[in-house]
Amino acid sequence: MLLLPTLITFALGISLLKTSTATPSQSVQKWDPNACAVVVCGPAQNGLPGRDGRDGKEGPKGEKGSQGLKGSQGPPGKMGPAGLVGGKGSPGEKGTKGDIGDRGSSSLTSCTLSLCFLVIMFPNGRIVGEKIFMTSGYEGNFDSLKQRCSQAGGQLASPRNAAENAAIQQIVVLYNKSVFLGINDIQTEGRFKYLNGENIVYSNWQTGEPNNDNGVEDCVELYSSGKWNDKSCGERRLIVCEF
Questions:
Q1: What whole-number distance in Å separates Cα of residue 185 and Cα of residue 213?
Q2: Which Gene3D superfamilies match (predicted)?
Q3: Model confidence pTM above 0.90
């Protein structure tokens, strides 16, 4: 930018030098034909914008960078909505057979199938505690009744308390027939025992009984009143067995 003013000043200096050599009476100035024309340029103006250049070719793919450091774990997100109920799965494999459990004691709540069957077959039976009293309606003497109860898996009814005595009484009232109990004094007169030989622990004798009338009353019958009477074992009475 400093070169252009310098050149202009230099050219004007030469031209003026040649003019100053003329005589004072001569007022015509002459230009040196060898002098350069001076063109003073004003400030440049912006031209029209050029066309956009074409895109360059895509460069080669760079190498894979090294893996960055693992960031810290963020806070847990909110619980999402419950999913749909899944379909029914296939049945699992059959498990191994378990150990055999301990045998439970006999009770009303765990009666055996045979006892439950008897209750169904003889609906007029009575249950007291762990005992079941029932009749088939058969009548016979003491020995035949004792044998039938034994064959059925029981024995002639042998009440050991008032509740059991009342259960047998209900059957007597229902059939309106006295029954033989599993009690007698066949071995020793006046000493009544159960069929297993044990002395009786409960009794409900009618007033004045037992009296061993005519010396032949070794068995015990139960009336509809629930009272006991000694009777000949050869008489026929209703069967009531206990299980």
A1: 13
A2: Mannose-Binding Protein A, subunit A
A3: no
